[in-house]
Amino acid sequence: MKVARCVSMVLAAGLCVAGAPAAAAEKTEARTPFQIRCEDTISKTVSVLSSKSNGYTIDNQIPYRALTARAGAAAGNMATLGLTVTQGQYRASLGGPLLQDPVSGYECIAPQVQIALNYSPVKIYVGSEFAPGTCGYQAILTHEMRHLQAYMNNLERVEKVVRQALDQRFEGKPLYAPSGTAMSALQHEINSVWFPFIRDEFDKGKVQQEAIDTPEEYARMGKVCNGEIAEILKRRALPRPRLY
12 in a domain, yes or no? Predict the structure, then answer.
């Protein structure tokens, strides 16, 4: 298994981090008129999260020598019979109504944050030496489908974690910032805090991927199909098999 990661959209960094003006500090018992307007009259904060699978394709056209080269250092001294490649992606859309207070020079925004998560279409490679319909082909493909399922399970987990974190962060309350900076401050937070958080959650899926590629699994693959896979490797004089 090898996976490339990317961010499908990176928002521009904002100018500052939103903070409440001194006159409207949350520590005071009485709310200012501006706080009352912001908290009671504009719509509540909304955070929406969506995730989806973009499907997969199977490529049986590349020799496993080329797959081994593509795996690079990750392959070590092993032949790469199958390879599963995808990219974790995430993007955000931001908006929300604004209110301004000329007296204090601040504004408030009820953030509307929509974050979409997905994996790019998964590409599953099976070495061209293993023809569709053969036992060897099916054994390799079955292994790679386990990687595919692990990606989908991780996507579901990431959505739950991020959804909960978003709800706890915004809690239906407006954000305050100097006039003209609330949206850029929100963009800055998404870019500097939420995207790294989502990236790290995607990366946690590596544990499940690595759990599939065990020494026991490699040994088993060398014996399946009455030694069909091992015999092909022997004829090609390549090291023992490994799948990614």
Answer: no
What's the chain look like in SS3?
Answer: CCCCCCCCCCCCCCCCCCCCCHHHCCCCCCCCHHHHHHHHHCCCCEEEEEEEECCEEEECCCCHHHHHHHHHHHHCCCEEEEEEECCEEEEEEEECCEEEECCCCEEEECCEEEEEEEECCEEEEECCCCCCCCHHHHHHHHHHHHHHHHHHHHHHHHHHHHHHHHHHHHCCCCEEEECCCHHHHHHHHHHHHHHHHHHHHHHCCHHHHHHHCCHHHHHHHCCHHHHHHHHHHHHHCCCCEEEC
CB 3 within 8 A of CB 209: yes
Tell whether 73 is covered by a domain.
Answer: no
Mean pLDDT of 94-119: 93
Residue found by looking up tokens 């407006």 in the block: 174
Q: Give the Cβ contact number of residue 219 at 10 Å.
A: 11
Number of domains in the chain: 1
Domain that holds residue 38: 22-62+87-124+135-205
Whether 233 maps to a domain, the answer reads: no
Q: Note the pLDDT tens digit of each residue in 61-106.
A: 999 889 888 876 565 567 789 999 999 999 999 999 999 999 999 9
Residue 24 corresponds to which tokens in the numbers above?
């409207």
